[in-house]
């Protein structure tokens, strides 16, 4: 081979990168295909064991059957077919009983995703997480973190009637259409700010800006930071929006007001003024009306209800700078969801 050609190849990083990308892309497609096929296999194995071997028996006999089967499969195919794995397969086939759903998701969810989702007992919650994994391309680690942080219970959609939740998730799956209730949360967990017991609004704002990446993750998908202390002038008076974001999923400007006190009705009037100004002077033609989030240390539910914000572009939420125990937070959120659903039913 011509020495000049060898030298040219050695120096042509672009050419090497191109070949590398071809290899990586092919390996990735192969991995996805293998995962999809294995997922389908595990579903069929679980279904077969459950229907034709266990026949619904979860007693001593059923457990003995699984143990014996696992031993024989391990002897033939290796340790990947142990008793624990068979139990995963059985659970998977029970929870995802519709093979069409498995076919639809197996190219987008890994087997580990399916295992995690299978142990979410509430069907609506499981549907929420499965949809969000697909839409936002969550890794299994991210899925575990979101479940651990009680994301579903903190998201506004959890407080709506079940039928509405299903409709909004269907819209997201089929049309990629995000409703604001899929984005907004209450409470927001800001323990990563590591604030002292006493802090001012400026301290809170400064801490958020220092940890802006973490704050964006907590806000959710599609948020982009624009500016802090956005100055607006109305009748020669100056006002300042604490934090201004844009959400590309909702196609809306998002104004956030930070409060180091409990919510007061006057906060709503302040936010309405800001949103009206943003709609008039900042909103683009193809954007939806601006949305306001008032973050406060606490709120009284009846005051918020009387303000009738259900159809409003204002979201009032608490934030936590110190994370309580998961059990305590879970109890609190479940109670909030229960009360919210009761209000919708009246």
Automatic annotation (TrEMBL):
The record's annotation in InterPro entries points to: PD-DEXK-like_domain, tRNA_endonuc-like_dom_sf, YhcG_C, YhcG_N
Residues covered by the YhcG PDDEXK nuclease domain: 183-331
Keyword tags: Endonuclease, Hydrolase, Nuclease
Name a GO molecular-function annotation: endonuclease activity
Segments forming domain YhcG N-terminal = 18-154
Q: Name one Pfam family in it.
A: YhcG_C
- Indicate yes or no for the key word Hydrolase: yes
Protein's UniProt name: DUF1016 domain-containing protein
């Amino acid at each position: 081979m011509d020495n000049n050609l060898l030298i040219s190849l050695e120096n042509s990083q672009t050419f090497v990168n191109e070949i590398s990308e071809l290899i990586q892309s092919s390996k990735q497609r192969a991995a996805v295909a293998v995962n999809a096929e294995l997922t389908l296999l595990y579903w069929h194995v679980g279904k077969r064991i459950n229907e034709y071997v266990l026949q619904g028996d979860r007693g001593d006999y059923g457990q003995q059957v699984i143990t014996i089967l696992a031993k024989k499969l391990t002897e033939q195919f290796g340790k990947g077919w142990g008793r624990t794995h068979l139990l995963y397969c059985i659970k998977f086939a029970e929870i995802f009983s519709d093979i069409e759903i498995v076919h639809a998701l197996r190219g987008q969810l890994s087997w580990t995703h399916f295992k995690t989702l299978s142990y979410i007992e509430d069907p609506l919650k499981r549907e929420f997480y499965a949809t969000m994994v697909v839409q936002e391309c969550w890794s299994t680690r991210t899925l575990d973190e979101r479940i651990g942080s009680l994301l579903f219970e903190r998201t506004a959609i959890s407080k709506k009637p079940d039928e509405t939740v299903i409709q909004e998730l269907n819209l997201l799956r089929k049309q990629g259409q995000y409703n604001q209730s899929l984005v907004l949360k209450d409470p927001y967990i800001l323990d990563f700010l590591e604030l002292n017991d006493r802090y001012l609004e400026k301290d809170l704002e400064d801490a958020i800006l220092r940890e802006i990446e973490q704050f964006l993750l907590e806000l959710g998908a599609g948020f982009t930071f624009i500016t802090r202390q956005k100055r607006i002038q109305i009748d020669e008076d100056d006002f300042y929006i604490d934090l201004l974001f844009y959400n590309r999923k909702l196609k809306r400007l998002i104004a956030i007001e930070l409060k180091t006190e409990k919510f007061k009705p006057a906060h709503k009037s302040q936010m309405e003024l800001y949103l009206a100004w943003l709609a008039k002077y900042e909103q683009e033609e193809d954007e939806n009306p601006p949305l306001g989030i008032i973050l406060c240390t606490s709120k009284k539910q009846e005051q918020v209800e009387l303000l009738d914000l259900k159809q409003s572009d204002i979201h009032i939420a608490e934030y936590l700078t110190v994370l309580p125990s998961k059990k305590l937070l879970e109890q609190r959120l479940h109670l909030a969801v229960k009360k919210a659903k009761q209000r919708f039913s009246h």
